[in-house]
Amino acid sequence: MSARRETLLWLAQRASAAVLALCVLVHLATIIIAVQGGLSAAEILQRTRGNVLGLVFYATFVAAAAVHAPIGLRATLGEWLGWRGASRDVALVLFALALAVLGLRAVMGVFGGAA
Amino acid sequence: MRRNDHRARRHPAYGAFLVHRISGILLALFLPLHLWALSQSLQGAAQFDQLLAWTAAPSVKVAEWGIVVLLAAHLTGGLRLLALELLPWRDWQKSLAALAAAIALAFGLAFALAL
User: Fold this and answer.
1) Which chain A residue lies closest to B111 (C-alpha atoms)?
2) pLDDT tens, residue by residue, B43-99
3) Mean pLDDT value of segment A13-27
4) Separation CA B16–CA B98 (nearest Å)
5) Would an 8 Å CB–CB cutoff place B29 in contact with chain A?
6) Which of B31, B35, B33, B43 is nearest to A105 (CA)?
7) Is the C or the N end of chain B the one with fewer CB within 10 Å?
8) What confidence tens digit (pLDDT) does each residue in A28-75 have?
9) Contact B107 A98 (CB under 8 A)
């Protein structure tokens, strides 16, 4: 395990955390405002479809989460389950890709195109 | 493996570490489900409404509240970590942990009131 790689992962974890801090604040505020008075699909999609700012914001959110979550799990798997080495990292790269693909699909579904 | 002694585990910072780690694991498990359910439900407004109807059940609402608190706790715990690592600090570790807990619970309260 190279020190350089560990340093880069540490840096990526902090940088993505800083982005996520802002994203999560906005997301929590949105959730709390949106649930007031109940939710309906038409109501939500009417507000979101074609909203470019929302699309860029949530695409950024997904990208930062896809970087952040696997690095956090990496430390946890190593320290609590003793799972280290290449197999752990391959599994986590796949997890990161799955998050990115699922996340961007969801973002496109909510914010992309017309209703 | 080196283990923490009981003095380290009695410090509030150990509690803050556990909350941060466990909330992180649970969020990493929830995130793929959340994104998958969202993209599945976006086949059309009818499917989306089905998902929203399911989330109206009281047990699901309690679970949602739990996830909001986990997210808020992971956010504030992460800000605590960034402050510890990147800002000069000496003797305000406990205050920082308490502040993180207070803000996380405030989000939980705001979400519960908005439901």
Assistant:
1) A32
2) 777 887 888 888 888 899 899 999 999 999 999 999 988 888 887 766 777 788 888
3) 95
4) 9
5) no
6) B35
7) N
8) 998 888 877 667 888 888 888 899 999 999 999 999 999 999 999 999
9) no
**In chain A, what are the domain boundaries?**
3-111
Residue of chain A whose Cα is closest to the Cα of B79: A21
Domain range annotation of chain B? 6-114
Which chain A residues are closer than 8 Å to B42 by Cβ? Answer: 106, 109-110
Position A109, amino acid: G
Burial of B24 (0-12, 13-18, 19+ CB in 10 A): buried
> CA A29 to CA A21: how far, in whole Å?
12
CATH number of B6-114: 1.20.1440.230, 3.40.50.11740, 1.20.1300.10, 3.40.50.300? 1.20.1300.10
The CATH architecture annotation of domain A3-111 reads: Up-down Bundle (1.20)
Q: Which of B3, B4, B41, B48 to mutate to test binding with chain A, by most A CBs within 10 Å of its CB?
A: B48
Interface probe, candidates A20, A35, A67, chain B, greatest B C-beta count within 10 A = A35
- Residues of chain B contacting A111 with CB distance shorter than 8 Å: none
Residue pair A5/B70 in contact by the 8 Å Cβ criterion: no
Chain A residues in contact with B78 (beta carbon < 8 A): 17, 20-21
What is the Cα–Cα distance from A84 to A78, expressed in whole angstroms?
5
